[in-house]
């Protein structure tokens, strides 16, 4: 075990990519100890990516890329501006609400930061906000992407932990609302302290229009239910209601109804059993293509090709990490790492609170150094057996793990969101990290609440019958 982990850490220190470090450490271990034939190692690596849930990975990545080029981000921003722009610290509140909506489409923090974050930072700077405030609130709100469904890390975690991806998606909704509320409260406090005013005058017509669009979107599932009650099949009811909504949107030219429909279709479809989380990823891509090519006509074949190639590049990197992590995690199991960690924790304490405190500290440290997908792939086989001994639900552990790793994306030395925002805002990485620091407070408060009040995570999937 020391050879496996030691060589992995040494390769990371000398600058090897995470996937390469895991693969080389695994091959070195196999070469020295001969614990399995070469063909077994190869089969383990292939089995790591030979999984139906993993089909969702390229589709969610593609959906996020397509949303960024389909003109959806601008419409979401305008909608959020109409809804909360009149509040104190208006554009900071817009930043948060925009991220909540966009997270229902992309499923990744990087897509959020690079997509709608670009618009939000520029708008806040143009309205006189300090660039540090713009970067800080954008970074904090970007962590919402993988917490609200759909979520790429939840797909990877569900596969590694053999947990229900649908239950994970539903479990993220209330924690996401808690995080959003805490961030908006933080903006309100900062606005009072630094004298931030509203950025748009209060306009009842604009606000009423935004609420009307929300009501129209929420009426969609109600209309589907009524059509089903009238005797139509589920498929016919969905297509009929969606067709009427598209026709009305074309006639009235509502600003954000079609963009807001994306999370409703995905979450509603999974809740009602219309499609699995993997199929939801395909639905997200089809809806993105419809918006970009048909409804808004902002997508060209050149930009579509670019989004496709970006998706191929990102997917290849993600699946390479998963492949290398599969053999690495298997060897950790073979070397009894999970058992040793379990025995150590039980020798330390039999209290699940103490265990979760140790896990949070471990994840925060690991998240600062490892890519999210790699961290999930390595840590889940170690943590899952221990969590089971403490009676911690795998879905609850998945939310805790994901939120910790999202905070890790904001911290040096490997925080990808940190580097993306540094480039967008044209600031040094050090200055960007300092700008993000105050916005860690609502994230840590949310982490404490989600960790030690399991009902925040488990109530909704339990009510929906996804877990017992």
TrEMBL record:
Could you give one GO CC term from the UniProt record?
plasma membrane
The UniProt entry lists membrane topology as: Multi-pass membrane protein
Record's keyword annotation contains Calcium: no
The subcellular localization recorded is: Cell inner membrane
Per its UniProt record, what InterPro entries does this chain match?
DctM (IPR010656), TRAP_DctM (IPR004681)
Where the record annotates domain TRAP C4-dicarboxylate transport system permease DctM subunit, the positions are 5-456
Q: Which UniProt keywords apply?
A: Cell inner membrane, Cell membrane, Membrane, Transmembrane, Transmembrane helix, Transport
TM segments?
45-67, 79-102, 133-156, 168-190, 210-228, 235-252, 272-294, 315-332, 352-370, 375-392, 398-421, 433-460
Query: Which PANTHER family does the entry mention?
Result: SIALIC ACID TRAP TRANSPORTER PERMEASE PROTEIN SIAT, SIALIC ACID TRAP TRANSPORTER PERMEASE PROTEIN SIAT-RELATED
Protein name per Swiss-Prot or TrEMBL: ABC transporter permease
- In which organism is this protein found? Paracoccus salipaludis
């Amino acid at each position: 075990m020391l050879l496996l982990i030691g060589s992995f850490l040494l390769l990371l220190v000398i600058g090897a990519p995470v996937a390469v470090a895991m693969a080389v450490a695994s091959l070195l271990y196999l070469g020295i100890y001969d614990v399995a034939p070469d063909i077994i190692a190869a089969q383990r690596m292939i089995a790591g990516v030979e999984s139906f849930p993993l089909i969702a990975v390229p589709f969610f990545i593609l959906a996020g890329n397509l949303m960024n080029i389909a003109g959806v981000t601008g419409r979401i921003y305008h909608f959020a501006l109409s809804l909360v722009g009149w509040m104190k610290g208006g554009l900071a509140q817009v930043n948060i609400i925009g991220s909540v909506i966009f997270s229902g489409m992309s499923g990744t923090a990087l897509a959020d930061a690079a997509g709608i974050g670009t618009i939000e930072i520029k708008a806040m700077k143009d309205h006189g906000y300090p660039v540090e405030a713009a970067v800080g609130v954008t970074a904090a709100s970007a962590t919402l992407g993988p917490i609200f469904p759909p979520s790429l890390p939840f797909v990877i975690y569900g596969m590694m932990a053999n947990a229900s991806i649908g239950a994970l998606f539903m479990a993220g909704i209330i924690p996401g609302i808690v995080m959003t509320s805490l961030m908006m409260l933080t903006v309100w406090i900062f606005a009072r302290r630094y004298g931030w005013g509203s950025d748009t005058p209060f306009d009842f017509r604009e606000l009423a229009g935004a609420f009307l669009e929300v009501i129209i979107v929420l009426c969609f599932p109600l209309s589907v239910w009524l059509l089903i009650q009238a005797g139509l099949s589920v498929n016919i009811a969905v297509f009929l209601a969606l067709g009427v909504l598209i026709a009305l949107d074309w006639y009235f030219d509502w600003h954000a109804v079609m963009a807001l429909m994306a999370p409703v279709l995905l979450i509603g479809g999974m809740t009602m059993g219309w499609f699995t989380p993997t199929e939801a990823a395909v639905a997200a891509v089809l809806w993105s293509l419809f918006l970009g090519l048909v409804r808004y006509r902002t997508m060209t074949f050149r930009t579509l090709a670019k989004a496709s190639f970006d998706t191929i590049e990102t997917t290849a990197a993600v699946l390479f990490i998963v492949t290398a992590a599969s053999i690495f995690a298997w060897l950790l199991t073979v070397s009894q790492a999970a058992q040793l960690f379990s025995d150590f924790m039980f020798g330390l304490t039999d209290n699940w609170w103490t265990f979760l405190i140790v896990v949070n500290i471990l994840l925060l440290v690991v998240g600062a150094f490892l890519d999210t997908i790699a961290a999930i792939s390595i840590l889940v086989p170690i943590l899952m057996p221990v969590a089971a001994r403490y009676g911690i639900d795998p879905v609850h552990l998945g939310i805790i793990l994901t939120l910790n790793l999202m905070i890790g994306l904001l911290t040096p030395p490997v925080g990808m969101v940190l580097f993306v925002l540094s480039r967008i805002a044209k600031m040094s990485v050090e200055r960007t990290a300092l700008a993000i620091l105050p916005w860690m407070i609502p994230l840590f408060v949310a982490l404490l609440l989600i960790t030690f009040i399991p009902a925040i995570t488990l109530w909704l999937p339990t009510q929906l019958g996804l877990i017992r």
